[in-house]
Amino acid sequence: MTYLIKQLNKADMLNGETLALDATFVEAYSQRDPHNSSQGLFDSEARLRKQGRNVTLGYGVHLAVDTGSEMPLGIIVEPANVNEKKTAPRLLRKTVKHNRRRWKNLVADSQYSSETFRDEAGKGGVEPVIPYPKNQMKGKPVLRIDRKFRSHGPARLKRLYKRRSAVERTTSRLKEYYQLRQLRTRGLRNAFIHALLCLITMLMNALSAIKHGFPEKIRSPTFTWNIHV
Fold it and tell me: Which tens digits make up the pLDDT trace of 54-106?
């Protein structure tokens, strides 16, 4: 994955301006343990997480995405009950370590709202664009999101926050076209390998589009299929 990202950097396809973080749930290949309903019967490392009105067993795939190219640059996989705040600092350090470019901004939803994480991003020269909950920074001109997912606050921060949708589109393509939606393997290590292979396939498809002279097709999941046909 690091090699492919370097190749995309050489091709100047990563704009290096805004990084977006988000997590997505992947269902485990197991049913619940009847003796311990918080974990899987065939996959003891999978954990429960609320998905809408249901509680489901699985893993959380935490991603860092370049918002310009919508390419994944960093990944961490944890049991589904691990909060985004806990993984965010490690994911940011891991992504920055393997990429020479320096981002100006980091956008993420309110699940990442933590002063510790904001401080860490700031020390690295990256401006965190993360909405504050209602009970924090009262009366201050900060970014907030209401129940209808409308953004409020300074116009500049609202514009930057709109870039967060890039990571959602990347996740959608990973699940729809690159087999991230459902596991057919068990255990945290294997779940990580499965997710990593999905990302590598996406990056290889993007690099193939560039090599064939179609850089505008790097986000097309069917580009490689069409070339071979």
Answer: 888 999 999 999 999 999 999 999 999 999 999 999 999 999 876 766 789 99
Assigned CATH for 2-213: 3.30.420.10
Domain ranges of the chain: 2-213
User: pTM score > 0.90 for this model?
Assistant: yes
pLDDT digits (tens, 9 = 90+) for 153-202: 999 999 999 999 999 999 999 999 999 988 999 999 999 999 999 999 99
- Cβ burial 151-182 (10 Å sphere, 16+ → b, else e): bebeeebeebbebbebbeebbebbbebbebee
- SS3 state of residue 24: strand
Sign of CA dihedral 85, 89, 90, 94: positive
Quickly count: other Cβ atoms within 10 Å of residue 80's Cβ. Answer: 22
CA-CA-CA-CA torsion for 44, 112, 104, 211, nearest 10 degrees? 30
Residue with tokens 């870039």: 163
Give the phi and the psi of residue 26 in degrees, each rounded to 5: -125, 125
